Amino acid sequence: MRRFAFILVATTVALTPYLARSEDTEQSTAQAAALTVAVAAPRTLEWPVTIPASGRLAAWHEAVIAAEVSGLKISDVRADVGTAVKKGDLLVQFDAETSQAELEQQQATVEKQEAALDQAVADAERARGLTGSGALSKQQTTEYLISERKAKADVLSAKAALASAQLTLERTKVYAVDDGVISERSASLGNVVNAGDQLFKLIRQNRVEWKAELPVKRLADVKEGTKAVIKTPVGDVGGEVRLVSPTTSTDNGRVTVYVTLQPDQGMPAPKTGILASGYFEFDQKDALTVPETAVTLKDGFSYVFILKETEKLTVARKRVETGRRQDDRVEIVSGIDKVDKVVTSGGAFLADGSVVRVSEDAQSAKNEEAK
């Protein structure tokens, strides 16, 4: 019996290191199973209230520059798409030989009619001087007076034709109607055009605006003068509402809001035709915010993980409603409280109830905040 007890004791002593090592292994495995996360408390920041929108960038006004003469050939084109022009710059020259010849012909006609008028006036003056003397009959006197009137009419007609020829000659040169940038060109060297044919399109004053689309229910907040920020390929550009359309689109039921862009000095004007997003900006209001890394998406909903300090550190998944965004932070409209400790990194690998460890860096930062 003593021998059996001795054997049992000896066996127990021999197995003790292995049992201790097994417990250490289980504890190590449990710790390895816990994910390391960073946590932080939500921060309340003062952010402007915004209304997001999207729309295309378009010209403020686009001028059509067209030919005003017919049957003339283009002999010179001095502008192309993208050319910046000033009001009065020469854009197109038509062949002016025919127009110049017509002008000279009309000048000769005017001189001829003026000479005929001088003769008719002299005859009419003599007829008036001889009235009552019997040297001229009443009928002859009347004929001289009528000839004078016809000669005056012929001179006026010739001068009108001369003015028309002068205008035609002037229209052989096409000038920019305003400062701006050429957005479209139809004029080509050698083309014979008709009056009214488009030669160029011009973005007046190179002013580009944002045509944002908003649902009718948001129009109560947006009015003339409301500030906006537009995200363009050249950077964020400030703007101001110029006009709210009085009509609603029959396609989508939205209303177009015209926003005048106000780019910083030195910033190039954004290109037209680009679909740009942006937002309208109002008074500042407190926002409960978390880092954008704290928010995870699943099945179309937004979630954050909250640290639960129970017997073991675990996390609880909470569905939240997000709002405004600024830099790398997101507003949480509902779903969490100010005192909650939000997982800011590692959330993509968590599930509701997961056991976690708080990273040393996060713990140090937490202690510093407590101080």
UniProtKB/TrEMBL annotation:
<comment type="similarity">
    <text>Belongs to the membrane fusion protein (MFP) (TC 8.A.1) family.</text>
</comment>
<dbReference type="GO" id="GO:1990281">
    <property type="term" value="C:efflux pump complex"/>
</dbReference>
<protein>
    <submittedName>
        <fullName>Efflux transporter, RND family, MFP subunit</fullName>
    </submittedName>
</protein>
<feature type="coiled-coil region">
    <location>
        <begin position="96"/>
        <end position="130"/>
    </location>
</feature>
<dbReference type="GO" id="GO:0015562">
    <property type="term" value="F:efflux transmembrane transporter activity"/>
</dbReference>
<feature type="domain" description="YknX-like C-terminal permuted SH3-like">
    <location>
        <begin position="287"/>
        <end position="358"/>
    </location>
</feature>
<dbReference type="InterPro" id="IPR058637">
    <property type="entry name" value="YknX-like_C"/>
</dbReference>
<dbReference type="Pfam" id="PF25989">
    <property type="entry name" value="YknX_C"/>
</dbReference>
<keyword id="KW-0614">Plasmid</keyword>
<dbReference type="InterPro" id="IPR006143">
    <property type="entry name" value="RND_pump_MFP"/>
</dbReference>
<keyword id="KW-0175">Coiled coil</keyword>
